[in-house]
Structure formats: structure tokens, C-alpha cells
Amino acid sequence: xxxxxxxxxxxxxxxxxxxxxxxxxxxxxxxxxxxxxxxxxxxxxxxxxxxxxxxxxxxxxxxxxxxxxxxxxxxxxxxxxxxxxxxxxxxxxxxxxxxxxxxxxxxxxxxxxxxxxxxxxxxxxxxxxxxxxxxxxxxxxxxxxxxxxxxxxxxxxxxxxxxxxxxxxxxxxxxxxxxxxxxxxxxxxxxxxxxxxxxxxxxxxxxxxxxxxxxxxxxxxxxxxxxxxxxxxxxxxxxxxxxxxxxxxxxxxxxxxxxxxxxxxxxxxxxxxxxxxxxxxxxxxxxxxxxxxxxxxxxxxxxxxxxxxxx
Length: 311
Prior knowledge:
By secondary structure, this protein is of the alpha/beta class. Helices cover about 35% and strands about 15% of the residues. It has 10 helices and 8 strands.
């Protein structure tokens, strides 16, 4: 990967989740030194501050479980605009969240920019959950469980979410790390054509093979690649600062290997860092790990890592 011009974009969204705290995520990444780490690796960094919103004015949804719809819709609209503007002129936008509902805006915006450049957008979804519920199907009402359904153009989101500029082809999505999938989501995934790799498959065959195959497809299509990294992709023993902990996640080395392979491929063009809840963290350890993983994506090598003291 050549030196990048990185744009840090704060998305203090917590309306899509059930537990407060994600709005502190962007500042936690700044405190953990994300910008300085990227600059130390030879990249230029501009912190564009936090995205702000206005009320969207959408009506309540017939599904009574859905909550904070107006606020979440406003975030999606604002992030679409910010993402589309940032993903220009070889800029690498990094969206610091915030719950995973922000991806409905960030990915929609970078997909529009990819379409402007006549390139397909591919999405690597690193998450314990597929987030493929619709507004009608969600039982929890937590809208961080809906971005993939929205981004792939499934019905029922109009007029509640903003119009989708460019739907993502489900065959351009690879999910790695799944281990919490309900019955509706399982059926939706089977119908979708999405490449879904659960932790059982990783246990049996490793994490490198499915990722390598996906990256080969991105390269063959001359595509852009958005990486959406959820804290709960990681095992909670190493990343406790998330409101949706699911045991059995990616290990420290598995996660770094994914990022190192992404760096080696040179294909990644944008990144989400989502679901960090500093209120649940232990002395900033999860924020630091997410920054370290981002550093691996941007070129930090194994030999460059310092030994940490146990304090």
C-alpha cells in the first residue's frame, strides 16, 4: 500500500443500539492515537471532526419494536453525504463509530463514489452478526441490525431510510466471523448470495483461505473495497468494550492476519470502525486494539511491534 491521504470522520451514533455509550467511540479513537499512528506509518491524516445531523422527520414505523428511527435515519443521510464527499481523489475515509447502523450511511456514500468512478464496490463485513434484518423483521428494533438489508436494496426501507443511490450487489459482500445468526437472518443469507463465513468454517479451514479468495475476486473486478470492522468480530476476552459480546470470536492473531492480508492486497479504499463502547472498556484496551488493527491494515509489520509492559 502506497502512502494514503486519510480522512478521519467521527460518527457518534448510538441510536441504532440498545445500550448507550457508542457516541463516545470517535473520541476514544482519537485519545488512543489513531491519527498519530497512521502518520507514523507515513500516511497523511486529516481529522474532519464529527458528522452532525438534523431531524429527518420520518414517521413512526408500523413495527412497534423499531426505536429511534428518526434519529438513525438522520445519521444515515448525513453520513451518506459525508462519505460520498470524502471518498474522492484517492482519499481513504475512516469512519470512527458509533454503532453499526452508521454503515448504512458510510457504505452507501462510498458506493456512490465508486459508481462515479465506474468501479464496483465490494464489502468485507467483519462481524459476529450479519445485520440483514429489515424494518419489518427486526424483533429487537435495534437498527444496527439492518444495514446489510438496506444496502442490498431489500424492500421496506422507503420512506424511512434515505433513498439508496447505488445498491450493493450481494455477491460483492463477504462476511467473516459470523456466530450469532437468528432464524430469519439464516434464511435471508441463504437467499442473498452473500459469501458468509462463520466461525465454524474458520475453525476448520482457517481465516486466510476465504479472505484470499474474496480479495482475488475484488482484484479481478478492479473493484473498490470497503472494510467494516465491528468490535464484536473479536473475541470478548481481548475486546470487551462492546454491547453485543458473543464468545468465540476472532483471536488477536486471526484479526491481525486479516488486516495484514488486506494491506498486502492494496485493495482497501475505506474503513468503518464500529460498536466501540468506551463505557464498557477496561483502561482503553479495546480502543488500543482497534487502533493496532488499523495500523496493520496501513502497513505496520509484525517486526515493528513493541513489547508492552503489563501495567
